[in-house]
Amino acid sequence: MPNFGSPFSGNVDRKISKEELIQAIRLDIAGEIEAIFTYDSHVQATEDTVAKKVIGDIRDEEKAHVGELMALLRILDPKEAEFFEEGQQEVRELLEKEK
After folding, report:
1. How far is CA 48 from CA 31, 35, 36, 52, 54, in A?
2. What tens digit of pLDDT does each residue of 31-49 get?
3. pTM, two decimal places
4. Residue 91 in contact with residue 82, Cβ under 8 Å?
5. How deeply is 50 buried, as exposed, middle or buried, from its count of CB atoms within 10 A (0-12, 13-18, 19+)?
6. Of 27, 31, 43, 63, which is least packed with CB atoms within 10 Å of its CB?
């Protein structure tokens, strides 16, 4: 848990490798998705229109963060990007069969 009272608590004593960065980005994506879930549950749990609007906007910003992180992950790990594209293609093919 970070110590928010210390401006140096987030500092690291070394640079991370590319593989570690890729793992960190995956963890960041998971954190953003968890935040989306949490904010969305708050929106659903209240009738306060101002809270719904503000929290819903924050939730949607987290969705944009997922997109940004996914784009970065595709750049950092082109092989993983191929798997993402493969999965997207499978969905397109399934939808075509439905027509």
Report:
1. 26, 20, 19, 6, 10
2. 999 999 999 999 999 999 9
3. 0.82
4. no
5. exposed
6. 27
